[in-house]
Design goal:
It is a single chain. By secondary structure, the protein is of the alpha+beta class. The protein is built from seven helices and 17 strands. The protein is globular and about 65 Å long.
Length: 305
């Protein structure tokens, strides 16, 4: 499975990419909004907000927004590269066809009841994000490493229209219409959040009727991080909480995909694991006789046997 903290090793989510910000020390809150459709695709929106408390803060944000707009194409390119990398790693872990598309970054100001906010939105569409099984959509296998919400952050999973929650882990903090909501600070476990929904018009099974008597049980994903990280960045930045076996399998899969050999430093980059973690995993695989290492110049190259 991917490392949701690596978001994906998935999401690993690491994972992964850190957006620029107006000034160090600014206080951000981040909302992760995942809108899932009946085909298992999902629109991801990561919205970062900062309170503009005075004219100086407004001026600073306006300058930052102007600079971002000026270099928007390069920011979009970096965003697309990082998200595409995460989705590609999710494909390796899940074995499911996926694609990242429709990237966008929007910057602006919003007047709310609590004041004026500067807003930065990162958006993209993740085809194949959830698994579709007959009449059910299963969310969560891309978050093998879990997901992290900082203080004041929020995760919102919007379900397909007229669908019914069958199971979810862990329980959500709030239900609002067709939305399941979790608030930070929260550190989700491996494979969380995991949400199973039954699509509208599907016959209710005996299992579904029994589960309908239980409280909703739900889950979430991993991502960005500087002050308040993109839960997509957290995926790639944080070590996966997966079992050792999953880490070993991921390294073997990467080696197979790349012709049977990779620099050890490249394995670190692709998995989102730390250098120490990769060294430990490769050493264990060497002990089992599955791989071997050779020093080439200043690099260790890992080969499949």
């Amino acid at each position: 499975m991917l490392a949701g903290r690596a978001l994906l090793a998935l999401v690993a989510v690491s994972f992964m990419w850190q957006p620029t910000q107006p000034e160090a020390g600014w206080s951000f809150s981040t909302a992760f909004i995942i809108t899932v459709d009946e085909q298992g695709g999902a629109k991801w929106v990561v919205e970062r907000r900062m309170l503009l408390q005075d004219d100086e803060a407004v001026r600073a944000f306006d300058e930052y927004a102007a600079e971002l707009e000026k270099n928007l194409s390069s920011h979009l390119r970096e965003f697309e590269e990082k998200m595409t990398s995460i989705v590609e790693r999710a494909v390796i872990v899940t074995g499911r066809s996926m694609e990242a598309a429709d990237f966008n970054i929007v910057v602006g100001k919003v007047q709310a009841a609590t004041g004026l906010y500067g807003v930065i939105r990162y958006e993209f569409y993740w085809r194949g994000f959830a698994r579709v099984e007959d009449s059910k959509v299963v969310i969560g296998d891309v978050f093998e490493g879990g997901f992290y919400l900082s203080r004041d952050d929020v995760l919102i999973i919007k379900l397909p229209p007229h669908s019914t929650v069958v199971a979810a882990t862990p329980p959500q903090d709030q239900v609002r219409g067709g939305e399941l909501i979790w608030y930070g600070r929260r550190d989700f476990g491996a494979g969380e959040p995991r949400v199973v929904v039954e699509l509208a018009g599907a016959p209710a099974s005996t299992e579904r009727r029994l589960e309908g008597m239980l409280p909703y049980v739900l889950a979430a994903v991993a991502a960005l991080a500087t002050s308040a990280a993109l839960a997509l960045t957290r995926m790639r930045r944080k070590l996966p909480a997966s079992p050792a076996l999953a880490a070993h399998q991921l390294v073997i899969q990467l080696l197979k995909k790349h012709g049977g050999a990779l620099p050890q430093s490249k394995i670190v980059e692709l998995t989102g694991f730390s250098k120490a973690k990769v060294s430990m995993v490769v050493s264990e695989l060497e002990r089992r006789g599955l791989v071997y290492r050779r020093r080439v110049g200043r690099q260790n190259i890992v080969y499949l046997r």
